[in-house]
């Protein structure tokens, strides 16, 4: 796909959406369990502005819910080995020993999944997105966070400010 050129993506969750190259987020390694899925588009949930969707553009049936972890776990902090962030094209990543602390031009989101007992967040393996380069990767936190953090309350409905604040353009779903 060339810059400025539209591509229609047929999805099972959102119907057909029109995508431009500059809208894509690239995950060179894919996601854990979805390694073949490397090109994604970020979509807004029509009912809850705090929830976003990463829709794979190559596999229309693959979409994952995402949310800012701090929205639900206010003291969440991510520490990862700096080599896990090499594919994000970060020039001035501050490093403290072996751990890198993420700069402000990066967005950290976690995957939301449905469990028999309700919704949960994967706090152990968040997604890190370089907003400017539109590159992302899934990392493993050095801290002792659970893979399945069960939510005791629903994800609060908010405006789309949670994601737009990070300069990730959301596509509105009708």
Structure commentary:
This protein is mainly beta. It has helices at 69-72, 161-164; strands at residues 6-11, 15-20, 24-27, 39-44, 52-56, 63-67, 79-81, 95-96, 99-101, 106-115, 118-121, 127-130, 135-138, 149-150. It is built from two helices and 14 strands. Strands 3-4-5-6-10-12-13 form a seven-stranded mixed barrel. Strands 7-9-8 form a three-stranded antiparallel β-sheet, with no helix packed on it. It has a two-stranded antiparallel ribbon with strand order 1-2. The protein is globular and about 40 Å long. The protein has a single domain, classed as BH3618-like (Roll), CATH 2.30.290.
Describe the SSE topology:
Blueprint lengths: L5 E6 L3 E6 L3 E4 L11 E6 L7 E5 L6 E5 L1 H4 L6 E3 L13 E2 L2 E3 L4 E10 L2 E4 L5 E4 L4 E4 L10 E2 L10 H4 L10
Parallel strand pairs: 3-13
Antiparallel strand pairs: 1-2, 3-4, 4-5, 5-6, 6-10, 7-9, 8-9, 10-11, 10-12, 11-14, 12-13
Please provide a brief summary of the model.
This protein is mostly beta strands. Helix content is 5%, strand content 37%.
Give the strand tally.
14
What is the topology, as strand order, of the major beta sheet? 3-4-5-6-10-12-13
**CATH homologous superfamily label:** BH3618-like
**What would the average pLDDT be, to the nearest integer?**
81
Given as residue ranges, the uncertain stretches (5+ residues, pLDDT < 50) are 158-174
